[in-house]
Design brief:
The structure holds two protein chains of two kinds.
Chain A: E1 4-8, H1 13-25, E2 29-34, E3 46-49, H2 55-61, E4 67-70, H3 76-89, E5 96-100, E6 111-113, H4 125-140, E7 143-148, E8 150-152, H5 157-168, E9 185-187, H6 188-200, E10 208-211, H7 219-230, H8 240-263, H9 276-283, E11 286-288, H10 291-296, H11 304-319
Parallel strand pairs in A: 1-2, 1-4, 2-3, 4-5, 5-7, 6-11, 7-10, 8-9
Chain B: E1 2-4, E2 14-21, H1 25-33, E3 41-44, H2 53-56, E4 62-63, E5 90-91, H3 96-99, H4 114-117, H5 121-128, H6 137-140, E6 157-158, E7 162-165, H7 171-181, E8 185-189, E9 192-198, E10 205-211, E11 217-227, H8 231-240, E12 264-273, E13 281-283, E14 289-292, E15 294-296, H9 298-304, E16 309-314, H10 326-333, H11 340-347, H12 354-366, H13 368-383, E17 400-407, E18 416-423, E19 429-434, H14 439-459, E20 462-465, H15 471-475, E21 512-514, H16 529-557
Parallel strand pairs in B: 1-8, 2-3, 2-11, 3-8, 4-19, 11-21
Antiparallel strand pairs in B: 5-7, 6-15, 7-14, 9-10, 10-11, 12-17, 12-20, 13-14, 15-16, 16-17, 18-19
Classes of the chains: A alpha/beta, B alpha/beta.
């Protein structure tokens, strides 16, 4: 019981679930590292507070640690610099590192995509950063890479709360050709479970794993299913014109408002933006193949029905 | 990949595994099934990406009785997307009874049952964007909805079946991106098929001849050919392929071009309910508009020995200003803005005198608030909406309605299309349409109405009055229901009484198939598009199976 696993980005959506699953595992003890001091954190869990781009602090945190799960999010620059610091700091002690990457590394790829597919990273700065972080991870030799699709679940900002708000206000729904892409959804608990499984697998170094529901629904189907769970039906049919208006005209000011509101501590006040990258993703007919994660990591997936019901319930309680 | 045949060199042949003629509802639905299959598909569309006068003019033809059938360039669109660029979107499966051989309807009966199409309907609904394949109110809605006619309890009629509506989806616009990026698919626009060339023995199609309106001619060779160019046009092309058979390809037993059916449709009588009724739309979770109707139960159809008929609760006749309804009067006054295809049945083409017109103006003025609200609804839910409110629904304050009847036509050898002497710009003979209806067609509607009047009265919900003597004139007032071109290349297992077999393959020709409502042996009460799509999806599977077994055969020989 003396194994200690450092979770970076422990206060994030995924990090929190990794910490919780580690704590419940009886296999290892989580050390939760976040940038901010949190009120109301679980007292029984060891907490560290430092910036993941601070190499010195990282080096100190790695002392006596057997493994690391890197869930640091944030800007592309943060993603790259935290990965760079981590893999440099880890060299002396050599813990196994589970690096949270993203399907964004596949860029604009279409069709069925397994882990051998080229890392194009040709869809924006986020994807470029994730590719770079993966490169640093593979240079480290003791890293396992997880490439989740769209991670959803209770308290997920991107793929749960934002989409719920858009569905409730009928700004998304049935998008016609704009929603023909595949929703490679994966439940946050499944991502956390995969991180644990990767830590426990001694021969997994250098491997990458796609994480997503097999046979993903189209985004149109996903939106309908989510809207049903939310009680936001009937869904609206939105024209391509309307979506273009969202991405070209509405998205820039809404994004600015979001940033300002974030600074002022009014997070959640302005309506969410639909940036062009998001609309592009909804069209992208990419299907992550996940057989490798099922075989090597024994992944079993939370069904969308269950995951969405749980997500909708949590949204209700949070909204009061 | 999308290619304009105008950019292709004259005379250079093309080849594919499967050649689909016509990029409309069935052609596009089929082509989509080959995405990712590794099977090469060439989808030939005669028209361009938009409406073009010269392409459209290729549809011109003659009509035996102009009062009974619309001109042949109407309700048909020779362009990418076909007639889905103009359709109303009503998406209905044929009923199981429609497939049965009914001894009281001559030449009825399909060689397949509804169960053969059952696996394909959900996908057909999906492609048509008509929501789930759920066609009763209980199947389509998780929670109880208000009844259509509260208290109407009938052993003869049911009010629980639904009509569902597509957006209406323009298949060309909706699926262009898939066809354009699909590796297997080449869509050729401005590519008009003008001839079918058979092998020496006549057992297989060798190639089709393609012409453009700019003078190019080339051939397309394929393993399998599918005519998906609409009920009338597929028939025309077969009739015009006279190299081996003077009456056209598939005409050996003089069935091709015969049994032409549309639907009987008319607005009849006055139903005065003594309580509010619901004649509007229910909106399913997926956003599709669903509407209930009065349908005759199949066992009653068999007992009464009549064809399949349904009726919807409709608004009073628009042209008569005595309805005192501002919305209806406005629709009359706005008739010049309503497209021909829809306006005909709305305002009836009646020319009214000035006094009557003035009465309509008065209705609009006195009923201004509801007229304005209705205009706003039309603008928001129809004109600007992507999923359009399907029809004009007037909620009658006085619970007064007329009945909108949509009825099956029985197969009739004498109702037929033939080739005329004139040819179009590409040299293809023009069609002559001689649409007929039978006393049986009218008789079924009469019986339906009589039983309905009885049941409405008996259940105590109101009264249905109609003029029995004008049933025939009302049901034929606008002639054949436009756009439904059924039966002229009917399906059957016996080549003496049918043109294609149960797999839509032309009898005696190994690799030529017909998709679309031309192969329907009977016409149902339902609009044909959805069933035509389902049947074409089944055909796509069949063609794939044929290619796979051929490939397997090839391997085993090696």
């Amino acid at each position: 019981m003396s194994r200690r696993i450092l979770v970076l980005g422990a206060d994030g959506f995924i990090g929190r679930r990794v910490v919780a699953q580690l704590a419940a595992s009886g296999w290892a003890i989580p050390v939760a590292a976040g940038r901010r001091r949190l009120k109301g954190s679980v007292p029984s869990i060891d907490r560290l507070c430092f910036d993941a781009t601070d190499e010195k602090a990282l080096r100190a945190a790695l002392v006596g640690v057997d493994g690391v799960v890197n869930c640091v999010g944030g800007s592309p620059a943060t993603i790259v610099s935290s990965a760079r610091c981590l893999f440099r700091a880890a060299i002396p002690t050599g813990p196994v590192v589970v690096q949270l990457s993203s399907m964004a590394v596949y860029g604009a790829a279409q069709g069925e995509v397994d882990e051998q597919a080229p890392l194009r990273g040709d869809c924006g700065a986020y994807g470029v950063a994730k590719v770079e972080a993966e490169r640093l991870a593979s240079d480290y030799h003791r890293a396992v890479i997880l490439r989740p699709g769209c991670v959803y679940g209770p308290r997920g900002a991107q793929w749960s709360e934002r989409l719920a708000r858009l569905l409730r206000t009928h700004r998304i729904g049935d998008l016609g050709a704009g929603g023909d892409g595949f929703a490679n959804m994966v439940h946050v608990e499944d991502v956390a479970a995969a991180a644990l499984a990767a830590l426990r697998r001694p021969d997994g170094y250098g491997q990458a794993y796609n994480l997503a529901l097999p046979n993903p629904p189209t985004w149109n189907d996903f939106f309908l299913q989510f809207a049903r769970a939310l009680g936001a039906v009937p869904i609206a049919r939105l024209s391509e014109r309307r979506l273009a208006l969202e991405t070209r005209l509405l998205a820039p000011p809404l994004k600015v408002a979001e940033i300002l509101a974030g600074r002022l501590g009014l997070g959640g006040f302005p309506p969410p933006a639909i940036p062009p990258s998001l609309a592009r993703l909804w069209r992208q007919e990419i299907r992550l193949l996940v057989g490798k994660a099922e075989n090597h990591l024994d992944m079993r997936w939370t069904s969308l029905d269950r995951g969405l019901a749980e997500t909708a319930r949590s949204l209700q309680t949070h909204a009061g | 990949m999308l290619i304009d045949a105008y950019d292709l060199p004259d005379g250079q042949p093309l080849a594919a595994d499967v050649c689909i003629v016509g990029a409309g509802a069935t052609g596009i639905a089929m082509a989509l099934q080959f995405l990712g299959s590794g099977i090469d598909v060439l989808l030939l569309e005669g028209g361009g990406l938009g409406r073009e006068t010269d392409s459209q003019a290729l549809y011109d033809g003659a009509v035996a009785d102009r009062r009974l059938h619309s001109p042949l360039d109407r309700y048909r669109e020779r362009r990418f997307g076909g007639s889905t660029t103009t359709w109303g979107g009503r998406s209905m499966p044929f009923d199981p009874i429609d497939f049965e051989a009914r001894d009281y309807i001559a030449d009825s009966g399909w060689p397949i049952g509804r169960d053969a199409l059952q696996p394909y309907f959900p996908l057909a609904n999906r492609i048509a964007e008509a929501g789930a394949f759920a066609y009763t109110i209980d199947a389509a809605f998780a929670t109880p909805r208000r009844p259509m006619i509260d208290g109407f309890d009938s052993q003869t009629f049911t009010t629980s079946t639904l009509e569902r509506f597509s957006c209406p989806t323009d298949f060309g616009r909706r699926y262009r991106h898939k066809l354009d990026t699909g590796r297997e698919i080449r869509v050729l626009v401005h590519a008009n098929v003008t001839g079918i060339v058979l092998s020496a023995g006549g057992q297989a199609v060798e190639e089709v001849t393609v012409k453009t309106l700019k003078g190019q001619t080339f051939s397309v060779r394929a393993r399998h050919f599918v005519l998906a160019n609409g009920g009338l046009e597929a028939t025309r092309l077969l009739l015009a392929s006279r190299d081996l058979m003077p009456g056209g390809l598939g005409s050996r037993h003089d069935v091709l071009g015969r049994f032409y059916m549309c639907h009987m449709a008319g607005t009849i009588g006055a139903i005065q309910f003594n309580r509010p009724v619901w004649n509007g739309y229910d909106i399913a979770d997926d956003g599709t508009y669903c509407r209930r109707r009065l349908a005759m139960r199949p066992e009653v159809q068999r007992r009464e020995r009549i064809a399949n008929v349904i009726a919807r609760l409709h608004h009073p006749r628009i042209t008569d200003p005595r309805h005192r309804n501002g919305i209806l009067s406005m629709l009359y006054l706005a008739k010049m803005f309503i497209p021909y295809e829809y306006g005909k049945r709305l305002h009836g083409g009646e020319v009214l005198d000035w006094a009557t017109r003035l009465a309509h103006v008065r209705n609009v003025v006195t009923d201004m608030p509801s007229t304005v609200a209705f205009m706003a609804h039309l603008l928001r839910d129809r004109r600007l909406a992507e999923r359009k409110f399907p029809s004009i629904i007037i909620r009658s304050k006085t619970h007064l309605h007329s009945l909108d009847v949509h009825a099956e036509q029985e197969p009739n050898r004498e109702s037929r299309v033939t080739l005329g002497q004139e040819t179009d710009a590409l040299g293809l003979p023009r069609l002559v349409v001689d649409w007929r209806y039978t006393p049986g067609d009218i008789g079924s509607v009469r019986r339906f109405l009589a039983l309905l009047a009885q049941d409405i009265e008996r259940s105590g919900v109101g009264r249905f009055d109609y003029d029995q003597d004008s049933v025939e004139s009302e049901m034929t007032r606008y002639g054949a229901y436009g756009g439904h071109h059924i039966g002229t290349a009917r399906m059957g297992s016996d080549p003496r009484t049918s043109v294609v077999d149960a797999n839509c393959r032309l009898h005696g020709v190994d690799n030529l198939f017909v998709a679309g409502p031309a192969v329907f042996p009977t016409s149902s009460q339902a609009n044909p598009t959805l069933t035509a799509i389902a049947l074409s999806l089944r055909l796509a599977d069949h063609v794939k199976d044929r290619l796979a077994s051929f490939a397997a055969g090839e391997r085993s020989v090696l």
